[in-house]
Amino acid sequence: MSEERNDRKVREGMVISTSMDRTAVVSTTDRSRHRRYAKTVQRTRKLYVHDADNELSVGDRVRVTETRPLSKLKRWRLVEVLEKAK
């Protein structure tokens, strides 16, 4: 078992709020087919992300990963900024 297991979820999304100190709110969209009607359904979810350096701004595209609970709502950590806001 030399290979290290990493079962943590990774998500990509858009930063929608940076009002809090060292916390950003990221909106992620999951697309799936409806079981009965076979139409594509979008589900949007807000993730509270730990941003230690306050480097994020609204509109950035980011990649986040699951982590241990950091506060009441914060369970995600910033991995990388994919695209800065224009």
Descriptive terms for the model:
mainly beta, 5-stranded mixed barrel, 51% strand
Can you describe what's shown?
The chain is mainly beta. It has no helices and 5 strands. A 5-stranded mixed β-barrel has the order 1-2-3-5-4. The termini are far apart. The model has no long low-confidence stretch (mean pLDDT 94).
Overall average pLDDT = 94
How many E-type strands? Answer: 5
Q: Helix- and strand-based class?
A: mainly beta
Helical content band = under 10%
**Spatial order of the strands forming the largest sheet:** 1-2-3-5-4
Counted by DSSP, the helix tally is 0
What characteristic shape results from the CA principal axes?
Answer: globular
Largest beta-sheet details: 5 strands, mixed, barrel
C-alpha end-to-end distance: 45 Å
Rg is 15 Å
The residue ranges in which pLDDT falls below 50 over 5 or more consecutive positions are none
